[in-house]
Amino acid sequence: VSLEHAKVDLPHSLWAATAEPAVESNPLKSQIDCDVAIVGCGFTGLRAGLALAEAGQTVVLLDSGEPGWGASGRNGGSVNPLLPFHSPEQASRLIGPVFGPRLSRLSLTSADEVFDLIDKFKINCHPVRTGWIRTAHCRSARRLFEAQCRQWIDIGAEIEILEKPELDSMLGSTAFAMGAIIPRGGNIQPLSFARGLAQAAIKAGAQIYSQTRIVDLFREKPEWVVKSSQGMVKAQKVILGTNGYTDNLFPGLAQSVVPVISVQVATKPLADDISAAILPGGQTFSDTRRTIFYGRRDHMGRFLLGSHGTTETSDDHRDFDRIKKEAKRLFPQLSETDWEFQWGGRAAV
Ligand SMILES: Cc1cc2nc3c(=O)[nH]c(=O)nc-3n(C[C@H](O)[C@H](O)[C@H](O)COP(=O)(O)OP(=O)(O)OC[C@H]3O[C@@H](n4cnc5c(N)ncnc54)[C@H](O)[C@@H]3O)c2cc1C
């Protein structure tokens, strides 16, 4: 995996081209005191900042780019409940009998949390809630897939198994062996959602500083000192929400994170006949491959497909060409369709 040096400009992407306007925020150029300083204005930092500001804490949010600059403004916008890769039993094996079941149960309502926030703060981010279709990519994946679905149903998930004819017509593809729909899932315009969270956090009293890379973080008891090249925040507590863009700010943190690159391509808005055939119900889908493929439509009728990649810059076409080829294999209706956007980002594992 080759990691390019992060730039502070938003990358050219479908989401950057179609998002709601950004909130006004400037670089930090002074010294301020607060209860909680938050480094990173993605979903993690923004959601935490909003909750803390609503609870009456003084909050300062800082980002080397701007709210939604990282994975939060570049992702697929799929709002999927449950865990994306693991069953409840696998989660318990991985993180133990206390936290495994707790995480699995928490994930049952994770999509509700997102859609509730959108309603509560009236965030304009094109929410669609017609479900997430999970597909088994081959016949041999079928048995494992069914067992995983049963485990989720046993702990209270709403899942409906789709047999092939129904699956094929919901997807507009005959490429998958079987599938299941999780009706509580859906999709959003992720950069607009991040900007909406930023707006809500500011309204609740939080301050946001963009173009502010934090270069130093240390304890001067009883406070934490958070420094950029031009300013400083003194805080009782600090949250690091830097995810796949984590640098050497805090000892050992970068070593605990493996940044994984994911890349996406989007077509131009589809012609009416093709549009009616591919995901006509507006669902999101993803498959069971280790190198997961995930896809959806956007509010303008484009089709998007994403998968793992090796570089997040749009100049290297190899990943994008591979995904476009796979899109045409899964959905032969796209054989003559033009592609409009390609972009990538990093998520932490
Ligand atoms: C291409 C792609 C597709 C994805 N698709 C989906 C999907 O469809 N559904 C889903 O649920 N998840 C998806 N994910 C995962 C999801 O996007 C991430 O889990 C989520 O956005 C992480 O949010 P975050 O706030 O933790 O991190 P980020 O959004 O990455 O934010 C981290 C922020 O920290 C800032 N930062 C880092 N270091 C510093 C510093 N020293 N000083 C100041 N700021 C700093 C960065 O500028 C960045 O804005 C996808 C991820 C990618 C990359």
Automatic annotation (TrEMBL):
Annotated FAD dependent oxidoreductase domain residues: 35-345
One Gene Ontology cellular component: cytoplasm
Pfam families, alphabetized: DAO (PF01266)
Xref: InterPro entries: FAD-dep_OxRdtase, FAD/NAD-bd_sf
PANTHER family according to UniProt: FAD DEPENDENT OXIDOREDUCTASE DOMAIN-CONTAINING PROTEIN (PTHR13847:SF281), SARCOSINE DEHYDROGENASE-RELATED (PTHR13847)
Protein name (Swiss-Prot/TrEMBL): FAD dependent oxidoreductase domain-containing protein
